[in-house]
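Let's see one such:

===
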Amino acid sequence: MTGWLSVALLAVPLLGALVLLLAPGALRPVLRTYGLILSGITLALALVMAATFDHGRPTSLQFALDQPWIPGLGLRFHLGVDGISLPLVVLTALLTFLCFGYLSWGRPRTPGRFLGNRPRALVFTLLVLEVGMIGTFLALDLLLFFVFFEVVLIPMYFLIGIWGGAGRRAASVKFILYTLLGSVVMLLGLLLVWARTGTLDMAELAAAHGAGMSRSVQILAFVAIGVGLAVKTPMWPLHTWLPDAHTEAPTVGSVLLAGVLLKMGTYGFARIAIPVLPEGATAVAPWLGAFAVAGIVYGALACLAQRDLKRMIAYSSVGHMGFVLLGFATLTPVGVNGALFANVAHGLITGLLFFLAGGIKDRYRTADMPSLGGGLLATMPRLGSVLTFAAIASLGLPGLAGFWGEMLALLGAFQPASGLPPALFRTYMVIGGLGAVLTAAYFVLMLSRVTHGRPSGAARQREPQPEGETPDERPVVPLGSAESLAGRPATATLEAGNPTQRIDDLRSHEAAAWTPLVVLIVLFGLWPGLLLSLTTPVAQTLLGALP
C-alpha cells in the first residue's frame, strides 16, 4: 500500500490546526467537538493502519512514502512504520483522542467554558502536539526525525506555561531548557553520522550496521545521540525537569507527556542508536545499564518520600523508564522485547494514573495525599476502585500489562549479549528486582493514604474547574458545607462523622475516557503476544549486526 495513510495521519491534525488560525470565529460554535472529531479521524486512520498492516512481515517498512525534501542536501521526506513504531502510533492517536474526549465531554462550570481558559488556543496546541508526536514515530530520515522530535517542545511548553498550575512558568522554562540542550547534543551526534556515512536515511543506515564508521566514532555518536534521547526519556540523573513539569501541567498535558513524549526518547534508542551504531551500543551498554538501575531505585525511593500524588506518579516514570533502558542495555532480543513492551504498557497505565490524579485534584483542589483525608473507597467507591486497579497494574501485577515489560527486561539482564559482562548485568538484575519491590511499596503506601481507612474529614472540595483553566483564588469550601452542596448533584455519601457530606463519584466523561485504557491494560496483560508478535522479529533484526 502507498504512503497516503502515513501522510493522512499527519495531515488531518495539521490541517485542523491551520483552519483554527484561518477561520477562528467560524469554528467557535463547534469548538466543543472540533478537536474531538479531528483526533477521532486520526485514531480511525491509525486503526486502519494497524488492521491493514502485514503482520507476517513486521520487520518490513510499510505504508512508506519517500519523496525529495531538500534535494540540494540529499534530504528526503521519508515516512513508514514497522513492528516497533506501529504500536506507538496507535497509542499516540488513542491518548490524544481520549484527552480531547475528557475535555469535551466534561460538565462545564459556566456556558462556553467547557475547555477552560483560551479554548481555541488549547485545541490548536493539542493538534500541533499530535502532529509532532505521530511524525516522530513515522519519520525514517534522521533530520526529519529531529524536526518532529523538536516540534513537540513548543506546544508542550505552552500547554504547561498557560494552562498549568501555580508554578507553571518555572516548570515550563525548566522543561524547554533541559530538552533543548539535550536536543542540541543529539543533533551533533546525528550530524556526525551524516558526515561519516553520507546519508540520513534510517533504513539504509540500519542495514549498513555501522559501516563507514570506526569504533571510536560510533561510541562518540552513540553518547551524543544517547544524551539527547536520555533527557527526553528521562534517564537519571537527567530527569529533574520531569517532576515539576508533571506537577504543574494540566491533566491532558501530564497524560500526553508521560504516555507519549517519554516514549520518543526510548524509541530513538531502538530506531537509531542501537541499529545504526552497534559497536557504540556494545561499548556504552554497561554504563547505560548502570544509569538505568540507578534510576529504578532512585525513582522508587523518591516516590516513597512524596506527598503530592501527581509528583509521585512523575517519579514513578523515572523508575519505569529505567526498566526500559535496562532492557535496551542488555542488547538481547528478550531485553529489547521487554523494553518495547514496557513502552506501550507504561503509556497506558501512567496515562490512566494521571487521568485519575487529575480527577482527584479537580474534586479536592489538591493532590496532597495526607490532605485528602483517605477513605476514597468509602466516599467514591468507583473512582477509588479504578485508582486501585491502575496502581496494581503499575506495580507489575501478573496478568496486567505492567508485568511483562519489567519481567522481560530483568530476564534479559540475567543473560546479556555476548561481549557484555554477565556478572555485572546479573547485579543489575538484582538491583532492578529490588526496585520492583520498592515500586510495590510506594504504591501500597499511596493506596493506604488515599483509598483506605476512614475519611478524616480533612479533605476539601471546590466547584469543578474545567481542564485548562488557570486556578482562581476563591477560598476552599469544606466538604458537606452548605456552600459545597448548593446546586450540586451528588452520587456518593460520606458517612464518617458527617453524614451530610456528599461528593461526586466517577463521572460519565471520566468513565468514557478511562475505560479503553483499562480494557487494553487487561488485554495486553492476558495476551502479551499481541505486541510481542510485532516486536520479536524486529528486535532480532536490529540486534543482528552486534559484535
Remarks:
- The two ends are 35 Å apart (CA to CA).
